[in-house]
Amino acid sequence: MKDDHIALLRALHDGHAAALWRYALRLTGDQQLAEDIVQEALLRAWRHPEVLEQGSSASKAWLYAVARNYAIDERRSARARWEVDSESLPERSRADHTDSTLDAWLVADALSTLKPEHRLVIVRAYYRGESIAELADALEVPQGTVKSRLHYGLRALRLALQENGVTGRS
Questions:
Q1: How far apart are the C-alpha atoms of 36 and 143, rounded to whole Å?
Q2: How confident is the model at residue 98 (pLDDT cuts 50, 70, 90)?
Q3: What is the per-residue pLDDT for 141?
Q4: DSSP per residue over 60-105, as a string?
Q5: Which of these, 43, 38, 45, 40, lies nearest to 17 by C-alpha position?
Q6: Residue 126, phi-psi category: left (phi > 0), alpha (psi -120 to 50), beta (remainder)
């Protein structure tokens, strides 16, 4: 039964979609809206299988009525009343880097309060992207020591940020 339904809808689309699009285009003057109207009319036909079984001419009349009503509804919608067409795109806003600059200052201030060995591993791991193994080789310490310094350094950094009034973000 579902395969019959799909076959009837496909036949309805193949037989009427192009003409229905031209009709919708004449109603609206907007190619994209005309495509939306055709899609909506066919979707409604899919939801009402009794329309598909009425025969080609009855289905065609039903599709055109749906298209007309949908076009009228779109014209009456608040979106149509308040939407403004423009030939050019609005000017792009420039990014405001104030927040990121302030965050960088807060983090730099908090980093300056850390022990040098903690600050060094945090900066090299998080800002330079060095791995634990790379840090261990460069600093000539075991990897466990690097991990420990990162752990305690991040803990101290979090406390320093909290003392400066910075709270955790979700």
A1: 60
A2: confident
A3: 95
A4: HHHHHHHHHHHHHHHHHSHHHHH----SSPPPPPPP--HHHHHHHH
A5: 38
A6: alpha
* Domain range annotation of the chain: 2-82, 98-163
Residue appearing with tokens 């949908």: 70
Question: 2-82: what fold?
Answer: Rna Polymerase Sigma Factor; Chain: A (1.10.1740)
pLDDT one-digit tens code per residue, 115-128: 999 999 999 999 89
Q: Is the whole model's pTM more than 0.90, yes or no? A: no
Q: Dihedral through CA 11, CA 13, CA 7, CA 72, nearest 10?
A: -120
Joined together, the tokens standing for residue 149 give 């310094």
CATH 1.10.10.10 fits 98-163, yes or no: yes
Question: Helices H, strands E: what count in the chain?
Answer: 9, 0
pLDDT of residue 170: 45
